[in-house]
Amino acid sequence: MIIVMKQRSSDDDLKRVVDLAKSFNFETNISKGAEKTIIGIIGDNVYERKEAFEALNCVEEVIPVLKPFKLVSREFHPEKSVIEVENEKIGEGFQFIAGPCSVESKGQMEREAEFLSNLGIKFLRGGAFKPRTSPYAFQGLGIDGLKILKDVGEKYDMKIVSEMMAPEDISIFEEYVDVIQVGTRNMQNYRLLEQLGHSTKPVLLKRGFMSTIEEWLLAAEYLYYHGNSQIILCERGIRTFEKYTRNTLDISAVPLVRILSHLPIIVDLSHATGRRDLISPLAKAVVAVNADGVMIEVHENPEKALSDGQQSLNFEEFASTYEMSMDLVKTMEGI
Fold first, then answer.
1. Residue 18 included in any domain
2. How many domains does the chain have?
3. Residues 87 and 57 in one domain
4. 37-42 vs 59-63, strand pairing mode
5. For the chain, give me the number of helices (H) and strands (E)?
6. Which helix (H) or strand (E) element contains residue 28?
7. Which of 11, 181, 186, 281 is least surrounded, with the fewest CB atoms within 10 Å of its CB?
8. Residues 269, 131 share a domain
9. Burial, 100: exposed, middle or buried (Cβ in 10 Å; 0-12, 13-18, 19+)?
C-alpha cells in the first residue's frame, strides 16, 4: 500500500504515519520526490488498515499496490534510481561495461584495461569464478583472478564488475570488486540474494534465461527487502526454440521494466546473442529503447579465448561498436 502525503507535510507528519504503520507491525519505505512524498507500507493484510491511514489529516491518498514486487516498483519510488559507484553512475547517461568473459592472465587484463580505458570505458568486467555447463570447461582463476582485476582496475581507474556464485564468498568480493554480478543461473538463488541484500556493494542482477520479468523483479525485491537498494538490472536474453542464436534478446523487456520499476537496466549483448556478428546492430536497438547501458565481452584474440570467444568482439570491432553507439546516444539526446 502507498501513502501519498499532502504537500508541505512536516517531518512530524511523516513520523505520525510511520508510527501508525509500526503499531500494526508493518514496515515502511519513504520516498521523497520533487513534488510528492510517498510512504510504502509493507505487511500482511495492509489494505485492511486503509481507513486508519486515510483518517490522518496529513495523508492525501491511499493507493493499493497489486504487483507482487513492492520496493522496486514505480509506485513505491516514482523517480528513477541512479546507482553510484564512487564517481561513476549507472542510470544517468549511457554506460559501457566491457572486458573478457574470463580473466586468463595478468598480461591479458593489462592489455584489455589499457585499450578500454583509452576509449573512455569506466567499467571493466571479467569472470574469476566461472559457472560452466561442462565440468571440463575452464572454471576461472578464482581469487587470483579477482586480485588481477583489482590491480588493473586501480592502475587504469576502472570499476570492476565480476560474478559471485556462493554466499560464503561475499567478503572476498567486497574486498576486490566494485559491482557484484549475479548471473542468470543464480537469479533465483535466494540464499545468495539474501546475503547480497546485506552487502554495501551494488549488485548487477541478470535475468534468468527462463525467467519471466515478474520473477526477475521479485529477485530484485529480495535484495531490496534485505537492505540493498543499489541494484542494476541486466537483460541477457532468454531461452526460446530458436537455434541460430545462443539466446533470444527480449528487447521489449527494457521499456517494460522502465515502466514497472525505478531500477536502471542494461543489456548484455554477448550472452543475448552468442554471436559477435549480431552485437553491433543490436547495440543500436539497445540505445533506441533507452537502456542505461550495455555489457559486451571483448578479447584481444577471440579465437584463442578460454571461454565464449564466439561471442566476444576483438579490439577493432569493439572500438567501432562503441563509437557508433555513442554517436547514436548523442543523436537521441538531441531529438
1. yes
2. 2
3. no
4. unpaired
5. 11, 14
6. strand 27-32
7. 11
8. yes
9. buried
Query: 165 is written with which cell numbers?
Result: 556464485
Residue 200 neighbours by CB distance under 10 Å: 8
- Exposure b/e, 253-271, CB count within 10 A at least 16 = b: bbeebbebbbbbbbbbbbb
Strand, coil or helix: 60 = strand
| pLDDT band, residue 253 (cuts 50/70/90) | very high
pTM, full prediction: 0.90
Mean pLDDT (the chain) is 94
- Alpha carbons 327 and 77: distance in angstroms, whole number: 31
pLDDT above 90: residue 248: yes
Mean pLDDT of 45-69: 90
Residue 102 C-alpha cell reads as 574470463
Question: DSSP state, 50?
Answer: H
pLDDT in tens, 285-326: 999 999 999 999 999 999 999 998 999 999 999 999 999 999
Whether the Cβ atoms of residue 16 and residue 22 lie closer than 8 Å to each other:
no
Beta strand pairing status for 2-5 and 37-42? Answer: antiparallel
C-alpha cell belonging to residue 121: 570505458
Residues 6+ apart with CB under 8 A from 306: 101, 102, 104, 138
